[in-house]
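User: My collaborator sent over this chain with a note saying "see what the structure looks like." That's all I know about it. Can you take a look?
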Amino acid sequence: MSQLRLLPSWLGARASRLLAPHDVQMFNRPSRSSGPPATFPSGKRGGSSSYMEEMYFAWLENPQSVHKSWDSFFRKANEEATCDPAQPPFPETRPAVSSRTETSKLVEDHLAVQSLIRAYQIRGHHVAQLDPLGILDADLDSFVPSDLITTIDKLAFYDLREADLDKEFQLPTTTFIGGSEHTLSLREIIRRLESTYCQHIGLEFMFINDVEQCQWIRKKFETPGVMQFSSEEKRTLLARLVRSMRFEDFLARKWSSEKRFGLEGCEVMIPALKTIIDKSSEMGIENVILGMPHRGRLNVLANVIRKDLEQIFCQFDPKLEAADEGSGDVKYHLGMYHERINRVTNRNITLSLVANPSHLEAVDPVVQGKTKAEQFYRGDAQGKKVMSILVHGDAAFAGQGVVYETFHLSDLPSYTTNGTVHVVVNNQVCYRRRGHNEMDEPMFTQPLMYKQIHRQVPVLKKYADKLITEGTVTLQEFEEEIAKYDRICEEAYGRSKDKKILHIKHWLDSPWPGFFNVDGEPKSMTCPATGIPEDVLTHIGEVASSVPLEDFKIHTGLSRILRGRADMTKKQTVDWALAEYMAFGSLLKEGIHVRLSGQDVERGTFSHRHHVLHDQEVDRRTCVPMNHLWPDQAPYTVCNSSLSEYGVLGFELGYAMASPNALVLWEAQFGDFHNTAQCIIDQFISTGQAKWVRHNGIVLLLPHGMEGMGPEHSSARPERFLQMSNDDSDAYPVFTEDFEVSQLYDCNWIVVNCSTPANYFHVLRRQVLLPFRKPLIIFTPKSLLRHPEAKSSFDQMVSGTSFQRVISEDGPAAQAPEQVRRLIFCTGKVYYDLVKERSSQGLEEQVAITRLEQISPFPFDLIKTEAEKYPGAELVWCQEEHKNMGYYDYISPRFMTILSRARPIWYVGRDPAAAPATGNRNTHLVSLKKFLDTAFNLQVFEGKTF
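Assistant: Without extra context I'll predict from the sequence alone. Here is the result:
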């Protein structure tokens, strides 16, 4: 006869709230004792009554089938409740009928206490006292869990009584409130839980899906005595609070009408950051990179980074004139770099605060990229030497998408920094004594809150009074500490008056020592030829067409591509992909680290690159031939990014900040996609040098071309980059011997659209060989990647050759320039369309075509030479982009300047439009034929006047 299985009453109605997912996970782990873990045929999870039944009955049959903690708990409970010493600790069979015995009541009460402990761990932060003003819930939510409201309500919720408060209960292994004690009274359990979770620190951590991490947090906060400060630590905290608060008071006294985004109401952030840095230094960190918004920035510069106070005070001088280049930026945007001794650990530490604009969280990925680069160059693969700290405002942290984009990079191998400390300044945990900034009047919109703020006793006084009362410091010592720092500020203020000018280079967040000078002298403003020896080209081509690893099986389609590379190498020609390979490989030979990042860059969006080979038979086995070129070469990093432009471009920008001796490239999957990274382009890349004297050599590869692929896969929006170029369209330049390089030095960035693989090769190498660093924007091709005419010979890349800013006509028209009736200027892919159309119309002798390879800074000298070479020709600018886009609005006034308005430059291309390209293939072809016809209709402009 089968045995009847009945659930004891103590495992009945309340079973559903006694277990949470973490408990289920714990029960399902194998027992430390021998024997297999219990399996429950009901399959119920998450604290259901059926699951509780199965666990209970499994324990009755075999105590080792449940977790060791539950075995110990049930055994102890049974022993305590059993009065008859002859009765065995476990029943040999399941009871046919169960009643509410003392044993079941005791077990039930223990489970209730465990559930109560868990409730504090999960929801205790809801009743924590986090609002210093006492007028608002810190999380803007008045919800208080019903199981944590009052002692009596708590007890009733868990079916406990007031008489149970003085009973002793066994503590579970998931709490550390007992310290070395294994049992506590219920009254003491509640007191310790409220002390840990319901005071002025709120803990929300039980959502973490890692038991060890949860246990670490519980141990740190629950263990009695661990969260207490020593007398020395209290005195250090007081001294740091004095500096934090008195710095703000000093600025308020001296510059009461200036915006400074002070830290009043959150002064404790300074000692918090300094404590993080102290602990990090103690653990072996040598370099800390910070990013933060405006609030408290000057205070962090002064009291965390330890920037000279006189340099900060100089920034408030209204008659300030920067001695160095650039327009400068407001004081609460600037950065800093400082190497010093950490006084707590007596170890060297480097601190840098990255400059950033008002776009708040835009600095997050920049900091992470800079951190990753510093780790890479130090060989710090585990992040044990270099770390980052990001400070956020609560609203921006939750509301700006780049925060999530940055988090999304955290587990990607070529992007992870192995962890970041995030400090979120919550304006309802602290408060802003002066509103958003010192020019605001917050009483307009928040009168009741700011009445309370005006009555609020500052944290420094509160803490000082506490330490004086307990005897840790005396009133005299406190007053002396204040007087000491006030004196430091006044002396620095006096010195700042003597500084007639500000050297903005003091505010650099990444100095490049030795880069701009050789033996103490400034580098020569010249650029060497960018060609390389033929044997080096051949060697790179051979490696590019091979598989350096043995027993490595590649895809058959890739075998065909490699054979094609080998054939080109033998014929001493290159296509776009092989030219790029040779540029990268030659730089690696010269010790220059190359990093290429973006969406699908390892293979290439258009399946042309294949820098990472994948074994077709061994999972995750890869080979990067570029890293097998030379025995002592620099490393090559090529890495597919997440589907992010804003975050990834910011990351690569930060990476390029760390060292000038690297070529860092970011490739958009299509050039159009950079628009979601526009903030990084506008605020950091275009303006970085002007605002922060921040040289940066990052390269943007933007696939561009009108090929019938629709409005979102065609245009990299060259007009936007050209509009932000800082060269003057109306200034007639002086053509000096070093005109080309001096132009590059003066510009804010370089914009090119190469039409040949050789020129692409040269411009990449020139980027590193220049004696300075400028961002480089390259509009790269799509169809030209495989165009039979878009090839270059080794002769155009060998030693002695260099980048061509303009490529002149070299056909029949160039042999008799006086006979040429039209000179067409163009850039990029449209050149090949024009050449084909000219040939079909038989106009090779009457029409010359000149290519602008470097669009900005504008090659005034070479354009003047080209125009003068064809004195009788009409001048035409031809582009495939719409008239209100592309290059025309940029080149037109510059042509007028260089030609002194003597000759007009006519426009040929698509009409103005709202979208950059049509989505209809036939419409695309019709408009292409139309403007090509116009380009070669030699009568179309006759009789018109300029």
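A starting point for your reply to your collaborator: The CA atoms of residues 831 and 851 lie 7 Å apart.
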